[in-house]
């Protein structure tokens, strides 16, 4: 498990690849960031699975896992940031603003021989994230000011960078 500087990202949730993953992969809805957020990731960020905290709109803050990369099982040709909020939602949240604070790295991305193997890996990632996010140094980030400053879709959000962290936003 690799330590990383805090990475914060905020953007509108867009429709991802047309495969209805939430139907195949269980109750966790996946939330995709637009290219404007993905394209502004630090150049040296590793692809793989991360864990942290997520907030949809001005709602509650939940645990999350995030895949950054090309999702080799699906053979994507475009890099994506796909967040799985560890919470059951009654409906999707396309068009909402998603704010995330990534606090740790779980593993590199890899391909799988079957959808079942992919689902097993995702479930293992979720369990690892749940445990790691209970550590005091990670639990306190649930209260990060980034979540309480979450703007509405219609407000202006200039990108900002702090010395101990990086914030990536899509300009909404």
What does this structure look like?
The chain has 172 residues and is α+β, with helices and mostly antiparallel strands. It has five helices and eight strands, in the order βαβαββββαααββ. It has an eight-stranded mixed β-sheet with strand order 2-5-4-3-6-1-8-7. It is globular and about 40 Å long. The N and C termini lie far apart (33 Å). About 12% of the residues have low confidence.
Give the termini separation.
33 Å
The radius of gyration is: 15 Å
Give the mean pLDDT.
Answer: 80
Q: What's the story with the biggest beta sheet?
A: 8 strands, mixed
Structural class: alpha+beta
Q: Can you give the helix content as a percent range?
A: 10-25%
What is the general shape?
globular
Count every helix, treating DSSP H or I runs of 4 or more residues as helices. 5
The total beta strand count reads: 8
Strand order of the largest sheet: 2-5-4-3-6-1-8-7
Q: Strand portion, in percent?
A: 25-35%
Spans of at least 5 consecutive residues whose pLDDT stays below 50 are 18-24, 153-165
Q: Could you state the order of secondary-structure elements as H and E?
A: EHEHEEEEHHHEE
